[in-house]
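A brief tutorial aside. Many learners find it easier to grasp structure tokens once they have seen a single protein encoded end to end. The record that follows does exactly this for DAGKc domain-containing protein. Read the sequence first, then the structure, and try to relate runs of similar tokens to stretches of the chain.
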Amino acid sequence: MGDQVVLLGLGQGDDAGDDCDSCGTSGAVCGADSAGCGSDAASCGSGAGGCGGHGEPPTPRAAVLACRDALRAGGAEVRLVEANSDAEIDTVLKETVLADGKLVVVGNDDGEARAVVRRLVRRCAPPPSKRPADLPTDRTLPDLPPIGLLSLDRNGTDDLVARLGLPRDPAAVAAAVLAGRTARFDLLRTDGGSVTLHGALLGGADEDGRPVPWRAVVNVDDAVLSDGTDPLLLCTVVNAPGGSYTEVDGLPLVTAADPADGSVDVAVAVLRYVGKRWLGNRRARVEVRRAHGRAVAVTPTEDVPFVDDAVTGTLTRKRTWWVERGAWAVYR
């Protein structure tokens, strides 16, 4: 019998997840093979819901079917499933990666992978009272089973797939799953019950796009990046290199993030004023403070908008991220 593989897409569910963080949506995978375009992309029309005409880039549905067909050609038994809530994600996990099967998460952005890994952590993390004796001292959970990532952004350069050097072509994703080639990366857990795979960016802008200053205490291990008195423009918590979490509007924030070095990289952009107030010519400049370590805590004095692995929300109280070295794995 070949590998049992599920291609999982996330639909628009009513389960908001943890602490104002949604699970992300894609709705890219139909629940049955007979639904939608069928298995032959060339026979489909180019209208809405079709697989695209000749010379057009593959639609999301076509990418899913291409991955499915490549998996089947390699001897795997494949199901296409859509999950619309945390409970449905849990059911898929129980039937696949927790039962010697394989899972490929289909998504438009990092939010889908985050949602699945978040539920995987909740199922695998032992309670403190039952901590295994062989668990490393710098970990709170065992090695998570690997998952595959199939990005529906065919030209993406700023998503997790790109930043971790993962395959983007559906056939290449299938080949990695069939061969069992994996790589392990650090995982950021949070005290809000969630996880961060790529990065989080805190801070907002007004209706004209100008950043709105805010204040927070930001600690990285024993280092203090902000004591709560300086106006902040941005704070970024980064696990993987490059992209919008490391540079904003040409301003470099985190410059050397490594997703497998056992540390989290943090930067704050502080608004500083130069000149004497009474002359009326004070000039503003931005100072970037950086640090890396095992954990970071951000305690805002006011509500702050954020985006975490492409999922938006509002931080209303202290949030702590800490590193689980090499805790999650992906087919590569």
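Self-check: The longest strand covers residues 319-331. If you spotted this yourself, you are ready for the next section.
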